[in-house]
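Comment thread on ticket #2218

A.B. wrote:
> Attaching the input chain for the structure job we discussed in standup.
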Amino acid sequence: METKVYSIKGEELRTITLNDEVFNRVDSDEDNNTNKLSTGSIYYAVNNELANRRVGTASTKTRGEVNYSNAKPYKQKGTGNARAGDKKSPIWVGGGTIFGPKPRDYSYTIPKKIKRLAMKSLLSLSVQEDRLVVVEDFTVESGKTKDLAAIIKNFVKDEKRTVLILKDDDVMMRRAARNIPYLRVLSFNRLSAKELLYGRKVLVLEQAATNLNEFYGDK
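C.D. wrote:
> Ran it. Output below, let me know if you need it in another format.
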C-alpha cells in the first residue's frame, strides 16, 4: 500500500510503500485469509503488558506474623463465651488476616508469534482508523521540549494521546519528549501494544516505517 510522507511542518512531500502484511491487515471472517487482522492477539498482548507492569508488593500479616500478645483474651471456662486461643486470631481486632495478599510476581510470557501478530494488527488498525502518519526523519539536537512540541503540534491538536515511533534509540529525542505528558516515544523494534491501542495519533518516522516493513514482514 502507498501512503503519504509529511514534512515536520505538516506538508505533503512524497509517498512511501508500506508492507501490506504489516500495515494493511483486514478484518475478515475467512479462515483461509493469511492477512487477517487479529483482535484476539491484541487482547492477549495488552493483558500481558499490564500484568508485567504490576509491582506485586501488596502484603498482609497472618496470625503467625502479627506482633501481638500470645495470651488468651480470657480464661477457657466459666465466662459463657466461646473458647479463644490468643489475641492474634483473625476474628479479633488487631489480629492476623485470613488469605490476604502476599508479594508475588504477576509477569508471564506469551508466544512471540502472538506478540508479532498483535503489533502488525495494531499498526493496521491505526491505518484503518486514520491515526497513523508517516513523517520525514528528524531529530531534536537541542534536546529541548519546546522544539519537539512545536513539531508535534503540526500533527496533533488538543494534546491528544500520541505515540512517536523512532528509527533508533535517539537519546536527544527521548530527552525532549520527557516533559510532554501526552507523548509516548517508542523504538520500531520495541513497540507497546497498550500505547498503540490507546494512542489517538501514531507518528512514524520515515526510516522507522521502512524498518517496520522489514522487521515484521514475512517472518
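A.B. wrote:
> Thanks. Noting for the ticket: The beta strands are 2-6, 12-17, 132-135, 162-166, 183-187, 201-205.
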